[in-house]
Amino acid sequence: MPKYQIPIVDTDIHERVQYKDILEYLDEPYKHYITNCHWIQEKHMPYTQPAVAGVDRADAIVPDGRPAGSDLKFMQEQLLDDIGHEIGILTSALDPSPSSMHGWHEMAVALASAYNDWQIENWLEKDERLYGSVHIAAQDRDAAIKEIERVGSHPKMVQVLLPIDDIMWGDPFYHPIFEAAEKHNLMIGMHHNEPPVYYGKWPRYFIEWHTLIPTAHMKQITSMMFNGVFDKFPNLGLMMIEGGFTFIPHLMWKMDQQYRDLRHEVPWLKRKPSQIMKEQVRFTTQPAEELTKKEFMSLIEQMGTDEMLCFSTDYPHWDYDSPYRALPNLDAELKQKIFAENAKAFYPKLPKKRRANNERASSL
Amino acid sequence: MKEQVVCKTSDIQPGEMKEASFGRQGVLVCRTPDGEFYAFMNQCIHQGAPLDKGMICGATTDKSKPGSYDYCHEGEVIRCPWHGREFSIKNEGRMLANPSKKIPSFKVRVEDESVIVYK
Predict the structure, then answer these.
(1) Complex-level ipTM beyond the 0.90 threshold
(2) Residues in B touching A57 (Cβ below 8 Å)
(3) How many domains are contained in chain A?
(4) Do the Cβ atoms of A364 and A125 come closer than 8 Å?
(5) Is the residue at A309 inside a domain?
(6) What share of chain B is helix, strand, coil (3-state, %, to 5)?
(7) How far apart are the first and last CA of chain A?
(8) I need a surface site. Which of A76, A225, A238, A289 has the fewest CB within 10 A?
């Protein structure tokens, strides 16, 4: 029996591909570049993640030695069944991260398609609870739109994933991508890959970089806001994944104050930025700072709404948040919103009613 | 349950740790490099991670200066498998970053080849 007594919609689960697993979804010549030329995604960080097992929970490594997040059965045992998830949204390990590639966009486009096919066949169609994210190579905008058209109507794809890295996504060049997403009832999910949080470079220590990730998320919200994405696409929503949430009141107040003074520059904004955030931007909770209930409720009050936060575990990464322990003990109604209802209200393609346990199948 | 044999001394080599049961309680039995045994609750006080899935290791110390690491206490520190929080085995299971917090511990004695945990 699942342990948790209220339904959980987990908005950030990292499934992981091993390159050998996507070969069958790649055409030549791309397959050759991985098989024979040992292509791997470019990485920039000078550090490892200095926990016990790098980026992963040490106990999430698959018992046969494969990397954490690479095996559905083990994920079911350790996460979905153990906690009793109603819904989990896959956000990938951002490796490959096609939109983060700084060249060779043909390869990025091929990888995005291969990843989507692998994700659909091996995860979305194997577990009723899992929903997915469409990967695109956004630098090749027209190919990205084609990919959204190709897989965006899959009933279990709920968002288009964009990495937070070194592209500001509010730029009008990318707006046709948002148009395509909106057309398919897909939201935009943004998750940091390796954003250069330190003036385009790297701070000396991982702890500095990791502390400053929220600043990269704030930049993207600000870019999307003042470039008018939310007014241009009123049915589009933005889920900011794994960047924290305690900065939200600051950003709302700051953008509102700037808007009152400088609206002249961005006349396409028809609503107050804080209002737009309340209506169209959501945040996953992990990694939650350790707040008391009083501190947490004060934050909610400052946001002016309790509908922006959506619970996430970040499984199987080292800074996983336990649904039992990560947040203070909230009142039942608020708990219900944060753990499930807010995400269901945000993603148009998620089922709204809770499935009974006996209706759940471990595979379709 | 007042006391219980949780394992044999030969089950845990110096510098290793192992999960065991003390009644219904999951305990983490640690053996430091000097051969001594210690036992703690096998659950991180932060978010409840199973500590036996973490590692027993050393730690960078407060003697480190910016730009230069001092690393010692090998085999005397437990690191949580999730968030990497560090607990000193020889200092009552206290968290290195916040010594006012500690993992609940149990008393341990060795009789012949038996490791006995008691309250």
Answers:
(1) no
(2) 49, 81-82
(3) 1
(4) yes
(5) yes
(6) 5, 50, 45
(7) 20
(8) A289
Say if A285 falls within a structural domain: yes
Across the interface, do A321 and B81 touch by the CB < 8 Å criterion? no
Provide, as residue numbers in chain A, all residues whose Cβ is less than 8 Å from the Cβ of B49: 57, 59, 322
Report yes or no on A265 lying in a domain: yes
Residue keyed to tokens 């990495």: A163
CATH of the domain at B19: 2.102.10.10
Q: What do you get for the CA distance between the two ends of chain B, in Å? A: 8
Which of B17, B19, B46, B47 should we substitute to test contact with A (largest number of A Cβ atoms within 10 Å)? B47
Window A:149-208, CB contacts with B under 8 Å: none
Yes or no: say if A37 and A141 are a contact pair by the CB < 8 Å rule: no
**Tell me, what CATH number does A146's domain have?**
3.20.20.140
**Parent domain of B109:** 3-118
Sequence-distant contacts of B55-60: CB under 8 A, at least 24 apart:
B55/A52, B55/A58, B55/B79, B55/B81, B56/B15, B56/B16, B56/B17, B56/B30, B56/B89, B59/B86, B59/B88, B59/B96
Please tell me the distance from the alpha carbon of residue B9 to that of residue A308, in angstroms, as a whole number.
53
User: pTM (2 decimals)?
Assistant: 0.94
State the helix-helix crossing angle for A248-262 and A213-226, rounded to 10 degrees: 30
Tens of pLDDT along chain B (119 residues) come to 689 999 999 999 999 999 999 999 999 999 999 999 999 999 999 999 999 999 999 999 999 999 999 999 999 999 999 999 999 999 999 999 999 999 999 999 999 999 999 98
Q: Pick from B47, B48, B81: which is nearest to A58 by CB? A: B81
Q: In the prediction, which pLDDT does A166 show? A: 93
Number of structural domains chain B divides into: 1
* Residue A321 sits at the chain B interface (C-beta within 8 Å): yes
Helix (H) or strand (E) holding B79: strand B71-79
pLDDT band for position A356 (50/70/90)?
low
Residue A136 CA to residue A176 CA, distance in Å, equals 13
Domain that holds residue A238: 9-349
Which region holds residue B75: left if phi is over 0, alpha if psi is between -120 and 50, else beta? left
3-class SS of residue A220: helix
> CA A292, CA A327: separation in Å to the nearest integer?
8
E runs forming strands in B11-66: 16-22, 25-31, 37-41, 55-60
The reply to whether A289 falls in a domain is yes
- All residues of chain B having their beta carbon less than 8 Å from the beta carbon of residue A321 are 47
